[in-house]
Amino acid sequence: MQTRTLGTTGPHTSALGLGCMGMSALYGDTDRAESIATIHAALDAGVTLLDTGDFYGMGHNELLINEALRTAPAAAREKALTSVKFGALRTVEGAFNGYDGRPQAVKNFAAYSLQRLGTDHIDVYRIARLDPDVPIEETVGAIAELVEAGHVRHIGLSEVGAETLRRAAAVAPVSDLQIEYSLLSRGIEAEVLPTARELGIGITAYGVLSRGLISGHFSRDRKLAANDFRSFSPRFQGENLDHNLGLVEALRKTAEQKGVSVAQTAIAWVLAQGEDIVPLIGARTRERLAEALGALDVTLDPADLAAIEQAVPAGAAAGDRYPAAAMADLDSER
Ligand SMILES: NC(=O)c1ccc[n+]([C@@H]2O[C@H](COP(=O)([O-])OP(=O)(O)OC[C@H]3O[C@@H](n4cnc5c(N)ncnc54)[C@H](OP(=O)(O)O)[C@@H]3O)[C@@H](O)[C@H]2O)c1
């Protein structure tokens, strides 16, 4: 397995991480046995970074990771790194209900996560979205205290903009910023990515397949449950979807010329944007995982990168990456 280091102070990790969110929520039906088998297959292949959030399935995802780690070979379990997001508040019905980054809430969230994960520390801990009512210095300061106490190893951030990155980094070392980055979501290139690089902060990129939209497997006929993120994501609606699937067909031509899949091309493109970027793969099955890991063997030369850029130019996507209410929660989009 190829490896990368998250920022100047972060952990050494596999070059691809496994994002476990879809195993508990947001992408329709889940299959517990296949989810655990997928995590085991990832560990077996040398993936060390497992990304989750305490609010993914409201604890479900952390308990799933707990079970997968408990039943994995000891050597794989010892190498595994947990990256956990907290702070999102939910209703009983599952709606998102704001964020809580107060120091006492941070410590409370961490106590519950450690219990659910069954571990004595969390490797990277981050608030999922900036709490607009709590200065980032206070939230990061609370995580720094958890680091000092040995409960957390590294401080991360999620979906924040350049100014918040600077303020957070002034409080304590930040290992990585988790943020959406893909051929369809290139917003970080203007300011956030250069700032992260200047500050020595790595990137864990999510949505590298744009939630499956640019995986090459998504089609207009795909039936989605009402609670599937994609049934209300702007990029998957009506004319936006037609336009975006047109981009996928252009990308498919480049992929076919290289003899690799569309998903592998899209993941390899993110890998090629810098050694400081670790893409998270949202595979929910062993089959999808195997395809995604194949991206590590894809080398994109300058001619390939130019062909990809021509197929999917920056800013070509139709539709925002989140519905309007969720866009408003993104400090990174201000
Ligand atoms: N910080 C944040 O705000 C934030 C937000 C979202 C996610 N995340 C993290 O990032 C991780 C990845 O995000 P994501 O799941 O949205 O990203 P993604 O990789 O863009 O999308 C994953 C979806 O793509 C489809 N897919 C098709 N072929 C695939 C392949 N070969 N490998 C993997 N997936 C394939 C799958 O859908 P089907 O199974 O339906 O085919 C899968 O559910 C999450 O698990 C989570 O840990 C963080």
From TrEMBL:
Q: Which UniProt keywords apply?
A: Oxidoreductase
Q: Which residues form the NADP-dependent oxidoreductase domain?
A: 16-311
Q: Name one Pfam family in it.
A: Aldo_ket_red
Q: Which InterPro entries match?
A: Aldo-Keto_reductase, NAD(P)_OxRdtase_dom_sf, NADP_OxRdtase_dom
**Which organism is this protein's natural source?**
Streptomyces ochraceiscleroticus
Return the protein name: Aldo/keto reductase
